[in-house]
Fold:
Amino acid sequence: MIHLKGRSTLKTRNINNIKNFYSGIIYVYDKYYKDKHGRFENNMFHFFIKLKYYMTILGHYILGGK
Structure:
């Protein structure tokens, strides 16, 4: 995990920070919540988090990120 001292990961528009942020969300979900839900729900969670990740990356390129 990276601590950005009060800055939002998504506002920095840094590809590595965005990737680490969404990887962290999936990691925490898998560690603490995966066993509490069924396979379908787990797959849906992963799908939508990855979809949001790709939308954020696309927005990064459209808006001319660093």
Remarks:
- The radius of gyration is 13 Å.
